[in-house]
Every structure is written in C-alpha cells, then in structure tokens.
Amino acid sequence: MKARLIASFAASLALLGNCSVSAADADLIKQGEYLARAGDCVACHTAKGGKPFAGGLPMETPIGVIYSTNITPDKTGLGAYSFADFDKAVRHGVAKSGSTLYPAMPYPSYARVSESDMQALYAYFMKGVEPVAQENRASDIPWPLSMRWPLAAWRWMFAPPVADTPEVAGADPVISRGAYLVEGLGHCGACHTPRALTMQEKALSAADGSAFLSGSAPLEGWIAKSLRGDHKDGLGSWSEEQLVQFLKTGRSDRSAVFGGMSDVVVHSMQYMSQDDLTAIARYLKSLPAMDPQNPPHQYDKQVAEALWKGDDSRPGASVYIDNCAACHRTDGHGYTRVFPALAGNPVVQTADATSLINIVLNGGTLPATHTAPSTFTMPAFAWRLSDQEVADVVSFVRGSWGNKGAAVKASDVADLRKNDMHTTSGDDLGQVTQPH
Ligand code: HEC
Ligand code: HEC
Ligand code: HEC
To answer: Ligand 1 pocket test: which of 35, 37, 71 has the largest number of ligand atoms within 8 Å of its C-beta?
Structure first.
C-alpha cells in the first residue's frame, strides 16, 4: 500500500515536471481533479482512442459537425491560458480569441460554478493534466453558417449570467449542494431537459420552470428521460438509496444504465463521494412531478400467469417468450442488478419509445464500475427480428405487468433502423457522445 502511494506520488511529481508544488497546491489540484470528474470534461474532450483531454471528439450540431478542443496545458491547448482566459471559456462561453463557443460546450450550466471551484479546476488543468501536443480540428460547418457571430447573439439571449452563488437561498444544505452539482458542473440538463427550436434548454434550474430535467427528444437514438417526480416515466418510485446506487454502479434493483448515461456513470458519477451522491439524489427527489395525478405503478399479474400457462395469444407474447424471458423473466422482474426489471421500469414507459426500440435492435452492455465490476450484455436483435416483431415485443413490454406505455408501430422501428445504418456507415460519427 505504502509502495503504491509513493509510486503514485512520484508519478504525480514527474507529471508536474520541474515546477515545485506545495502541499496546498497539491490539495487544490486534487480538488480540481474531483471537480473535473463532476463536470465530466473528459467525456467530450477526449476522442475515441485518443489521449485524455486532447480534444478532437466529433459532435453533431444542427448545422454540422464540430470537434471538441485540446484542454491539456500544451501550447496547442490551454498552455497560454491565464485564469481569466480559462474562466471566460468555461463559465462565459468565450474563447481566448474572443469568439463565442458553440453551446455544445455546456457553459450555460457551468455559469453556476463558484469562483473557488474554478480556481481548483484551473490548477488541475494547468498542473495536474499531462500536456499533449495536438492541434485543434476545424469544424465541418460550411460557410456562411460557420461564422461565429450568431453564437454571440445566442449567448447574449440565452446564457445565464455568471453568478457566484453555490447555495440556494433558504434550501436544505444537502439539497442545495445537490442543486449546485446537478444544475452546474453535472450539466444533467444538457441531456435531460428539452430544448427549444433555438436549441437553448427550456429551463436551466429547478427555479427556472418545470421543464427542467423533464426529458429530452431523442439524441443519438436514446431518450434522456425525465428525472422529475412522476411515477410512470420519472423517478417518483425510486428511493434516494436506489438513485445513489444507480449513479455509483450503473445499476439498481430498478434499472441498468445504457446509452449516453453509461459515459456519465463511468467517467463521472462513480467517482463522486457518498455525500455528493446523496446530495444529488436528494435534490432530484425534491423535483415535483409534471403530472401530480400520475399514480404509482401497480403490478398486474395477469400477463405473467397467462405466460405460465403457455398462453401467448397477446401480440408480442411469443416473441417475448422466445427472445427475452430467459433474462427478463415471464413476470418482468428480471434478476436484480444483473438483468433489469421491465415491470414498473420508467424507462419502459416513456412517451417516446426510441430508447427501447434501440436497445432491442442493437443490444447493450451494462458497463463495469469500480464497485460493480461485472458486466452483462443484452444481445442485439436487429438481425433476427422483423420491424413488426420488434414493434410487437416492445409494445408487449410497454403494456404488460401494469406498465402503461403506448404501443409502437413497425414504421417507428423501420425509421430507427434507417438512421442506424446512416450513422454506422459514416466515418466516426457513430461515436458522438453528446447532443446538440
Ligand atoms: C458536452 C460536451 C463538453 C463537456 C462536458 C465539456 N466541454 Fe469544453 N468544450 C466542448 C466543445 C465542443 C468545445 C469547443 C466549442 C467550440 O469550438 O466552439 C469546448 C471548449 C472548451 C474550452 C475552450 C477552449 C478554447 O479553445 O478556447 C475550454 C477551456 C473547455 N471547453 C473546458 C472544459 C472543461 C474544464 C470542462 C469540464 C468542467 C469541459 N470543457 C466540459 C465540449 C464540452
Ligand atoms: C450525455 C447525456 C446525459 C447526461 C449529461 C446525463 N444523462 Fe442521465 N441519462 C441519459 C440517458 C440517455 C438516459 C437513459 C438511459 C438509462 O436509463 O440508463 C439517462 C438516464 C438517467 C437515469 C435513469 C433514469 C431511469 O428511470 O432509468 C438517471 C437517474 C440519470 N440519467 C441521472 C442523471 C444525472 C444526475 C445527470 C447529471 C449528473 C445525468 N443523468 C446526466 C443521458 C444523460
Ligand atoms: C441475455 C440476456 C438478455 C436478453 C435475452 C434480453 N435482455 Fe434486455 N437487457 C439485458 C441486460 C444485461 C440489460 C442492460 C443493458 C445495458 O445496461 O446496456 C438489458 C436491458 C434491457 C432494457 C432496458 C431496461 C433498463 O432499465 O436498462 C430493455 C427495455 C430490455 N432489455 C428489453 C429486452 C427485450 C424486449 C428483449 C427481447 C427482445 C431482451 N431485453 C432480451 C439482458 C437481456
């Protein structure tokens, strides 16, 4: 243990080169590293197979593809950035050159980060990250759309003012910390809040309106669903404990992480302290339901009983028995923390069924985390089920065991299949991890 500590200390010293680092500096850098995890900077600023923070990850925007930038302390990255330059980019959305950043960089959320946390982040990016020489890649956006001046107008209209207010006035200190993390560095709303036509999030905080975290349109074939208090398609039936478990390990007795959320768990949430996870969970649980009339899930055992008796007359029932029941079971309860339950699972009942069709077509792997190292895979069914069979089985799952999701059509499946082929036959666009 001691040898490991010394080795890692030596490694950090080597990384820091010749500059001498005081204990206070080292603490600040460590705090900055933790905050960089909370902000998941690595997810967007690292290309597939590339060096951490060296940029180059393609991201789709409505007007074309842009590439994230090198934020290592090399001169091709942030090498020449003062604290003021860094702050201007991260919280205000303005690059050192003076041009406005695309809001694919979630600076409207980061505007919420405190000055002292910004100092820690700066210390980490300057002294704790290995410099990588890698020039930034220009966007593929054609002229005249590539002109950045409309972005300045966008920023002026939609980005909130930078305010050094980590505490929510009058709130419980735990919920207040949760709000700070979720609305700020965690930028959860970048995926989970619906966007207006002009692409800004419809609300940036709980105080800003009930659209906050009420669920997105499909991004990359996945729905970042509602995190509000609704039972049917939100987190109303999750306990604080289940939420903490899900964020830390990617699984709980309710659900298993997939799609864009896997990155969030693997790169960011699993590193959060127990206190911070509790704060995030308690804050999410404080968000009221969009539809207060929505009752909790009532398990209905009729379907399971019919399947037991060999009655597969319901549309989709035979497809379910043949392809799904071995893992998710005829009663829809799955196997806890291995194969997610489908009964009462809010993911299964979202108004838009895109995520479900996608996971049936393409399968998914529950990722390993430090505290839950086993991975489990759901196979892809695109090659063996027709559009109609996929529609039938997804509709079956959405309408069985008391679930109340609407049926889906074969044409919905066909559309998604077409989009899939479109993204996987392109170059590296399939790896885009983010919306916009
Ligand atoms: C959701 C994706 C995403 C996340 C998360 C993200 N960034 Fe960015 N960031 C981008 C993109 C894309 C750009 C380039 C935008 C452009 O070119 O207009 C960028 C630009 C920047 C810039 C400006 C660089 C320059 O050339 O001036 C800095 C600094 C930066 N990010 C730091 C961070 C830090 C620090 C974090 C974590 C706290 C972070 N980013 C998290 C996507 C992201
Ligand atoms: C890159 C986009 C993205 C970001 C950023 C993101 N999420 Fe998600 N999230 C998703 C997607 C997609 C799903 C649906 C897949 C799933 O349920 O695992 C999801 C699902 C979830 C779920 C499970 C909901 C359920 O009913 O199964 C929780 C809880 C959650 N996110 C919390 C958060 C929190 C907290 C943050 C911020 C710290 C966050 N997410 C940031 C994309 C994102
Ligand atoms: C070999 C076991 C296995 C089979 C067979 C299987 N699944 Fe899955 N399923 C899984 C695993 C593992 C996950 C979690 C995947 C992840 O986290 O990416 C999952 C996730 C899901 C989810 C997302 C639920 C959530 O909360 O994560 C749905 C919906 C689903 N499966 C439906 C089906 C349907 C419908 C079928 C049949 C067409 C099926 N599955 C067949 C193992 C299986």
So the answer is: 71
Topology annotation, domain 302-431: Cytochrome Bc1 Complex; Chain D, domain 2 (1.10.760)
**Per-domain residue ranges for the chain?**
23-134+145-158, 173-285, 302-431
**256/340 Cα distance (integer angstroms):** 6
Which residues does 241 contact at the CB level (< 8 Å), separation at least 6?
Answer: 281
Q: Is the dihedral of CA 30, 32, 35, 39 positive or negative?
A: negative
Cα(209) to ligand 1 centroid in Å equals 26
Give 24-73 pLDDT, tens digit per residue.
899 999 999 999 999 999 999 999 999 999 999 999 877 889 999 999 99
Q: How many residues does the chain have?
A: 436
Report how far ligand 2's centroid is from the alpha carbon of 295 (Å).
Answer: 23
Q: Which fold has domain 173-285?
A: Cytochrome Bc1 Complex; Chain D, domain 2 (1.10.760)
Q: What is the pLDDT of residues 133-187, one digit of tens each?
A: 999 998 888 777 777 777 888 888 888 888 777 677 777 999 999 999 999 999 9
